[in-house]
Design goal:
Number of strands: 10
Order of helices and strands: EEEEEEEHEEEHH
Number of helices: 3
Helix content: 10-25%
Mean pLDDT: 92
Largest sheet: 7 strands, mixed
Shape: elongated
Structural class: alpha+beta
Low-confidence stretches: none
Radius of gyration: 17 Å
CATH superfamily of the largest domain: Nucleoside Triphosphate Pyrophosphohydrolase
């Protein structure tokens, strides 16, 4: 048996009764794309965004929920909305689940290579994003070591990138 306790456009909270009678609570969310954006000069693009739940501004990768079933289309849309960038080369570099013990959130990670903008500077259409900036790979690794990137999903996505796709 399933009972929806709360539902909005981002997630729902469900109460399930398992076969053994035990209650199980589940956070149900749409899949989300995270984008590792690499510029023509091999730098990585991060956004600085205010995150209300922790009342802080954090550096993270561009990201957003998948609309419909087209993950790549959603990734392209999010990259442009959050950074003003488009990319010539796209590849899916992996996926993972955020916390499979209590939620079903699937993260799909895309690598966007050879990004470019029609403007000289990055721009965003998102109100919570205060800065869009490119960093060298060594700067990003130092940001990870010094805990300047606190978004766990961005850290996991960057791990996929540095482990398998960084050249």
């Amino acid at each position: 048996m399933k009972q929806v306790l709360h539902k909005n456009k981002w997630f729902s909270v469900e109460k399930h009764i398992l076969a053994n009678g035990q209650e199980y609570f589940l956070l149900n969310k749409r899949p989300t794309v995270f984008i590792v954006a690499e510029t023509k000069d091999k730098k990585l693009v991060l956004i600085k965004e205010y995150r209300y739940p922790i009342r802080r501004v954090v550096w993270q990768l561009p990201a957003g929920m998948v609309e419909g079933k087209n993950e790549l289309k959603s990734a392209k849309k999010e990259l442009f909305e959050e950074t003003g960038l488009a990319a010539k080369n796209w590849s899916k570099i992996g996926y993972f689940f955020v916390a499979p013990g209590h939620e079903n959130t699937k993260i799909i990670v895309f690598l966007a290579r050879n990004t470019s903008s029609s403007k000289d500077s990055f721009k965003t259409s998102e109100a919570d994003i205060s800065e869009v900036k490119k960093f060298s790979k060594s700067e990003v690794k130092e940001m990870i070591r010094s805990r300047k990137i606190l978004c766990a999903i961005s850290l996991a996505a960057l791990n996929l990138y540095f482990t398998n796709h960084s050249q």
